[in-house]
Structure to design on (542 residues):
């Protein structure tokens, strides 16, 4: 997946000012930067979620397998099934059981699911949640702890077998132990999925990401291999940010 | 506060300081107790008056010239038909309107105008709905003085309340859940159907039942559209002529014979029991459905 000269607006306010950034396949790319730098907006543009907000607008291209997801005639609903998303706050559907939550994406479309039990187990295993919930699949998703809920949301996204997984600060509402579990999980998932993770936490970026991109005021300042970016940043702003001089 | 000059024991509450507090409390308690007593007195009076007539015979009997054998079945059946038809009409329309206004309509002049109108319509006297129903449903559309025309009229009366209650319920569904659904590749309609509606159903149902409880006591619009006051048969289709509980009660109270007043009292007891039942169902449904939903 790659963005090319991507602009995004909220009303008259330009939140992204021409971002060009490629996400290498089966690698984790972290996006860091101070609050309001456009990093969340950017990932929301990658599965056409930005336009859901009233008054929001996008220009530019995002290629998914060489196909522009913003080309005329593209159905955003189909894009979102191939580019999964995990949000900041765990948001399992409260009226559905754990099992139904995992199947939600498949069922929402109304198509029959050939092997629901297998699909549920596979997705929950991938999200490292199966052993904890295998006996309580009928319980409501919101009966789980915050960290489990977030892994349930990851399982729900994985059940659709997306190519790319976008994570928008997936650990910011979790305690350190739950955070560690999610980070472990990201390590496992990168074998199959292309992952983009937005994070406020630079240690987290250093721990989980192969590549890190630094955003500032709607622009991409610098992107490099994570170890390079954190040890030898090219740009002064990047250096100031990662050394804690601002942000 | 001159702390320096006041000794410690002066911190004690004085009678004069307590007085306004006590007075307000007393007024508040009075404001609760008085109306309750009044209601109890009314209901108790009706119950005492009604006692000799309350029984299975009364519920299953047809009206008669003789008060002792007159029953309330046609009115009960008429009210049941009305409630069922009214909900069938008001729920889809009201919920649909609420869904449109909350989920699809773009904020603007037109939406604001519609919202203003709904708010105003909720306060329009019911007899005006009766007149509207008489003209449109009975005459123009030609439903005649049927139970269908009555239900359509009552549905109009309930619509603003149903819309307002449904919108409130829709607003309680957090935005994050809609986003979660969109991100899973659901379109707007699928999101409404699978995520939003199941969550707001308790709220919608409660609103609907509470407005039905109000509608079951409505008399003016039904009299206006020409519900009959003496009906010796049960409605057998939506085109049937009909009567309803409040109309039957109204009819009996206007008879000169005291024996019919006893029937009226019994009718009132039945009506109040039905309203309490509806309210009870609303509370039960809300509690039951909400237990399934955790935030």
């Amino acid at each position: 997946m790659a963005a090319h000269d991507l602009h995004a607006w909220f009303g008259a306010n330009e939140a992204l000012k021409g971002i060009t950034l490629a996400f290498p396949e089966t690698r984790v790319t972290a996006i860091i930067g101070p609050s309001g730098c456009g990093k969340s907006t950017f990932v929301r543009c990658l599965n056409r979620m930005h336009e859901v907000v009233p008054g929001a607008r996008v220009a530019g291209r995002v290629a998914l397998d060489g196909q522009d997801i913003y080309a005329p005639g593209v159905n955003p609903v189909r894009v979102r099934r191939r580019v999964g998303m995990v949000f900041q706050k765990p948001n399992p559907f409260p009226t559905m059981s754990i099992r139904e939550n995992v199947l939600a994406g498949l069922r929402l479309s109304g198509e029959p699911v050939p092997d629901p039990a297998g699909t549920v187990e596979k997705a929950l295993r991938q999200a490292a949640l199966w052993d904890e919930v295998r006996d309580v699949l009928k319980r409501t998703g919101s009966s789980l702890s915050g960290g489990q809920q977030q892994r349930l949301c990851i399982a729900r996204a994985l059940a659709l077998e997306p190519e790319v997984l976008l994570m928008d600060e997936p650990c910011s509402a979790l305690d350190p132990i739950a955070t560690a579990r999610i980070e472990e999980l990201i390590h496992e998932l990168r074998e199959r999925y292309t992952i983009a993770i937005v994070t406020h936490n630079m240690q987290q970026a250093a721990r989980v990401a192969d590549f890190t991109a630094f955003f500032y005021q709607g622009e991409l300042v610098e992107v490099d291999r994570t170890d390079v970016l954190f040890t030898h940043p090219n740009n002064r702003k990047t250096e100031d940010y990662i050394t804690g001089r601002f942000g | 506060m001159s702390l320096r000059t006041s000794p410690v024991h002066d911190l004690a509450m004085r009678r004069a300081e307590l007085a306004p507090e006590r007075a307000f409390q007393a007024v508040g308690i009075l404001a609760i107790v008085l109306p309750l007593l009044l209601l109890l007195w009314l209901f108790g009076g009706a119950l005492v008056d009604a006692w000799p007539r309350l029984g299975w015979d009364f519920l299953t009997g047809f009206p008669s010239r003789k008060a002792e054998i007159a029953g309330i079945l046609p009115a009960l059946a008429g009210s049941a038909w009305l409630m069922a038809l009214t909900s069938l009409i008001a729920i889809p329309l009201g919920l649909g309107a609420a869904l449109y206004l909350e989920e699809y309509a773009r904020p603007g002049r037109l939406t604001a105008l519609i919202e203003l109108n709904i708010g105003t319509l909720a306060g329009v006297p019911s007899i005006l709905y009766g007149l509207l129903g008489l003209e449109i449903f009975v005459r123009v559309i030609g439903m005649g003085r049927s139970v269908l025309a009555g239900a359509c009229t009552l549905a109009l009366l309930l619509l603003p309340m149903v819309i307002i209650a449904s919108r409130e319920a829709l607003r309680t569904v957090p935005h994050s859940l809609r986003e979660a659904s969109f991100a899973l590749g659901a379109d707007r309609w699928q999101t409404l159907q699978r995520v939003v509606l199941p969550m707001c159903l308790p709220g919608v149902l409660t609103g609907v039942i509470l407005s039905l409880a109000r509608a079951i006591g409505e008399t003016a619009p039904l009299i206006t559209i020409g519900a009959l006051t003496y009906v010796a048969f049960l409605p057998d289709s939506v085109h049937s002529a009909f009567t309803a509980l409040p109309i039957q009660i109204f009819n009996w109270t206007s008879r000169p014979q005291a024996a019919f007043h006893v029937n009226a009292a019994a009718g009132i007891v039945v009506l109040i029991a039905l309203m309490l039942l509806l309210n009870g169902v609303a509370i039960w449904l809300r509690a039951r459905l909400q237990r399934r939903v955790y935030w």
Observations:
- Chain B has two domains: 15-50, 58-292.
- Chain B touches chain A at residues 106, 174, 176-177, 179-187, 190-191, 194-195, 198-199, 292-295 (CB under 8 Å).
- Residues 15-50 of chain B form the longest helix (36 residues).
